[in-house]
Every structure is written in structure tokens, then in C-alpha cells.
Amino acid sequence: METTIVRAGYADRHALQRYTTDGQPSTSTGADGDSFETRIVWDGPVLVFTLVEQEDGRTIHSAERWSVSEDGQTLKRDRRSSKAEGESVIVYQRVRG
């Protein structure tokens, strides 16, 4: 997965992570320099991420569940984190072009 963070007035930041879905840990560095250990497994049709992030001397634990709607048009990303914001849900809608 490759991510790019774009913010007005700042240089773009890039990160490249390589994952497997067999539960083996992968280590990566995020676009902001944080270190991540990620484990990913399938739980039926749901992709489950367990993350440990090292950020400014703190350890942050997170879990994500990615699921695709039955019609294949929506990707839902449920995230729970030990950070202050706690829980979030991000929904991506497929756009045909």
C-alpha cells in the first residue's frame, strides 16, 4: 500500500508498506516517520489489522476491520485506537469513471 499525504503549504509525504495476510508481523515507517508493526489476517470476508505504532516515545495500539459491501461498491474501515480520538469509521465509495 502506498500513501501520500498532501497538505497545502507543505511538502507531500509518502509511505510504502508491504503486508501479508498470514498474521506475520511487518514493520514499516509512516509518512510522518512513525514506526509501525502490523499484523493482518482474514476473519471470513473481513480483513483484520492489528497495529502497534511508536510515536514520539509513546506506544499506540490500534485495530482495524476492513469490509466490502455485498455489491462491491463500498469499503468500510472501522478503526479503534488507544489514541485520544478512540474510534473512527471511514467509508470509501467506488466511483465509476
Helix content: under 10%
- Helix/strand/pairing class, anyone? mainly beta
Cα shape: globular
Report Rg.
Answer: 15 Å
Percent in strands: over 45%
Number of strands: 8
Order of strands across the main sheet: 3-4-5-6-7-8
What does the largest sheet look like? 6 strands, antiparallel
Give the helices and strands as they follow along the chain. Answer: EEEEEEEE
Indicate how many domains the architecture comprises.
1
Terminal CA distance reads 22 Å
* Count of runs of 4 or more consecutive helical residues: 0
Low-confidence stretches: none
Describe the structure.
It is a single chain. This protein has strands at 2-5, 13-16, 26-29, 35-43, 46-55, 58-68, 74-81, 87-93. The mean pLDDT is 87. It has one domain. It is mainly β. The protein is built from no helices and eight strands. The strands form two sheets. The chain has a six-stranded antiparallel beta sheet, with no helix packed on it. The protein has a two-stranded antiparallel ribbon with strand order 1-2.
Quick structural summary:
The chain has 97 residues and is mostly beta strands. 0% of the residues lie in helices and 59% in strands. It has one domain (2-93).
